[in-house]
Predict the structure of Orotate phosphoribosyltransferase.
Amino acid sequence: MPVMESRAVQVRCDKNRDRDIVLNLIPGHFATSHSHVNYYIDMTGIKHQQKIAKQAAEFMAERYVNSVSVDTIICMDGCEIIGAFLAEELSKSGVSSLNEGTDISIITPEYPNGQLLFRDNVQDRIWNKNILLLVASATTGKTINRSLECIRYYGGKIVGTSAIFSAIGETGGIEVNSIFTSDNLPNYFTCSVLDCPYCQKGQKIDAIVNSYGYSKI
């Protein structure tokens, strides 16, 4: 096993122990597009394995099922499988839900030239619709803010934001509901390059990371 992966530890969701929702954490020195962090948070299982993705969606749905009407779920960071299960959970028959029987849309934007874009054929699923934004992780809030700005540009009404992991509780006046927070990660920190204690010590970066994975340096 490579040295970096040998440091991995598992953290289980402590908010609902009836579900087997687990993050794999690798401590080290990592660079994101906005900051430096001391953990690589591996969400591969939660995003791509059917059983754990369904459990994550069930957990997320609890926040909205009785209080929020959702027309469209916009998925970022490869969260489409969770998004589909979340739509199924919110629209399930036989539960006290504002979305019971609703056919919720699942949409992912494109990123040409780094800009978020929704093609003409899906814009009617956003315009004047109640939008739930689903992201994998939020460390500084910049990605969420950019997504919210794009959704509003296309006329969507933001009714909620959910994440697998978030180091922030809200951004842009919108609450970020997450399964895991920085409280679940021992001594977790995120900081700018200039303030990074590892950089100040001359410690090299282990990998460049984002919500899709990592690339070692």
The first helix runs from residue 3 to 6. The chain has one domain: 3-216.
